[in-house]
Amino acid sequence: MRVLRIVMCDTDKEVLKMYSKICHTICKEKQIPAAISIFSDIRTLLFEMGDSAFSSMVNILIAEPDNGCGNLAGAVRERGYDGIILYLSRSAEKKYFYQAFNYNVHNYIEKGDVKVFERIFRNTLEAAQKKKHRSMVISCAGEYRRINVRDIYYFQTVMDHMICMWHEGGRIIFSSSLANLEERLKDRGFFRIHRSYLISLDTIRSISFKEVILCNGKCIPVSREKYSELKKIMEKRRV
Fold first, then answer.
1. Does the pLDDT at position 146 exceed 80?
2. What structural domains and CATH numbers belong to the chain?
3. Burial annotation 176-193 (CB, 10 A radius, 16+ → b, else e)
4. What is the DSSP letter of 151?
5. 163 with 178: CB under 8 angstroms?
6. What do you get for the CA distance between the two ends of the chain, in Å?
7. What is the 3-state secondary structure (H, E, C) of 17-40?
8. CB contact at 8 A, 80 and 59
9. Per residue in 54-76, pLDDT tens?
10. DSSP H or E run through 96
11. Which of 11, 26, 185, 206 could hold 190 in an S-S bridge, CB 3.0 to 4.6 Å?
């Protein structure tokens, strides 16, 4: 089962401790493997979410919107985050409700009302599991580009921490690692057939001991240790 990634941000470390414990308990109760990351200031969170790899891996963001960093929901959406946002706040100012409406915040919860939080978080878990990520966001030359996963052929390492992605619209070179992409996409039909290549299984036309031929005619090398596993995966997909 895919790990659910939850990020929490609040300047109050005791609040972080309490609510992260609640989230962990509920996930364990529902037998949902979850990884919870916590941030004690929004600026650090926004810096991390500037990395498209980080943003794409987050499923649920739980944050305090009123701790001095402007429009949080708008800021993370601009950075390419398309997952679920929960506002957990002591403030009832209208501007935060407007933010929640304008930037598709999943819910607005008053701090201290633990029972309400537990109920909403349980519902949010169901929504997160049903949500299918059909696209990914790539940061390239200072811009964020959203690419449909079904349009991607493969990723290739071109140099240290630089990746070339080939898709139906051409190619994009961006900063990341193949190991990071493999973790993000392993449950979305991608397989690492070589130390330098991660490919979409849906684009494979044929395989041999030495190479894979994709539907666009591109030939990709297969490493000896990956061939048997790839063959088994493709046989299962054809059943």
1. no
2. 4-130 (3.40.50.2300), 150-238 (2.40.50.1020)
3. bebebbeebbeebbbbbb
4. G
5. yes
6. 21
7. HHHHHHHHHHHHHCCCCEEEEEEC
8. no
9. 666 788 999 887 765 457 788 88
10. helix 94-102
11. 185
